[in-house]
Amino acid sequence: MFRSVAPPRPVRTRRMPAVLAAALAAVLAAAAPATAAAPEPEQTERSAPRLDPAAPHGAWAGYSTGKSATQSRIPAQIPAGSVAGTDVSGHQGEVDWPAAVAAGARFAYVKATEGSGFRSDSYRSQYDGALAAGLVRGAYHFALPDRSSGAQQANFFVDNGGMWAPDGRTLPGVLDIEHNPYGETCYGLDPAAMSGWLADFSNTYHARTGRFPAIYTTASWWNTCTGGNPDFAANNPLWVARYAPEIGELPAGWNFHSFWQHNDTGPLPGGQDVFNGDLAQLGQFAG
């Protein structure tokens, strides 16, 4: 369930012993051949879905496509005391938000940006449409840590739709960090460097908005690419992706989640999500 937490403090990542960091870096480097980074998209979203082997049950990375073979794994009903919602991107185009509300949605997350060069053309209509239909809504950013600094991407996100307001209708921004759709799983960063990048994004977003961003990830990606870093759980709400009837293991550090994406197809447009609390707690979380 939604819990109150102590006043936020900037993330200070653990210093990993040099020998351990070098060993982990060597293992990750051996696992995948080095490839040149693809040019960062500026005006187009990824045109084809890509299976993410690091995500449970082969989740699609970065966005929801509505082309999943896992619909049978949708929980028969959302957990008691939870609230249903959805996440969308340019792949959903124009969303029928009143129909989503009729199907049970009470919140929505909308993709705003990716890296430091891509702005979703669908963001504004989706974001405003969700609000007009009565949903609590927020924005998310797809991280590309190999392209620019965490601070640069956090500022780009805030400047292009990721701002938060204490109005009870705006959810804190989300950092979507998962399997790299363009190359090496961990974006060529060792766990110490990845943790530093995440802290840079998180602290910059907090400085700009007064809220720490939620983090969307999978347990497998997080535990591999951050070395199981537990330090972010104190400040950053968790949005965990696992396509299964139960939520399963959480990423290192978190002992509860705020959101759970349990499928990428179902009665709602885009991703099928639940908030770990009731409607009143969702309002508290937003505002």
From TrEMBL:
Keywords: Glycosidase, Hydrolase, Signal. Residues 1-36 form the signal peptide. Belongs to the glycosyl hydrolase 25 family. Residues 35-66 are annotated as: Disordered. Coiled coil: none annotated. This is Lysozyme. The keyword Signal applies.
